[in-house]
Write a structure and sequence with these properties.
transmembrane helix; transmembrane; mitochondrion inner membrane
Length: about 100
């Protein structure tokens, strides 16, 4: 049984190219682009895994926890937008009042 595992590993090593070999076949532009965006992709992966860890703390399954989080985020964004609109409206009203006050003088 152990020899079959060794044979399988040997066959895979012979058939699957080394990642460095694959990268050498890519165009220089693609390699440069991948190198330039590597830090951003790594950061995104770290954020993704941190998010998964946080979601896994919930008693819900991961998909339901993600759905609830997305709903909560949308509600927060909508609330923030409403608050910003109210602030803009108040600022416009104050500016009008100041302009009318300046005209009265």
């Amino acid at each position: 049984m152990g020899s079959k595992g060794f044979m399988y590993a040997k066959m895979v090593a012979a058939l699957v190219p080394d990642p460095e070999e694959i990268k050498k076949k890519w165009s220089p532009e693609l390699r440069q682009h991948l190198e330039e965006t590597r830090e951003e992709r790594e950061k995104n992966m770290e954020l993704f895994f941190a998010d998964l860890k946080e979601l896994s703390k919930s008693n819900l399954n991961i998909w339901m926890a993600m759905r609830e989080r997305d709903i909560r985020r949308k509600q927060e964004a909508k609330q923030k937008q409403l608050e910003e609109r109210a602030l803009e409206r108040r600022m416009r009203e104050e500016m009008r009042a100041e302009a009318l006050g300046a005209q009265d003088k």
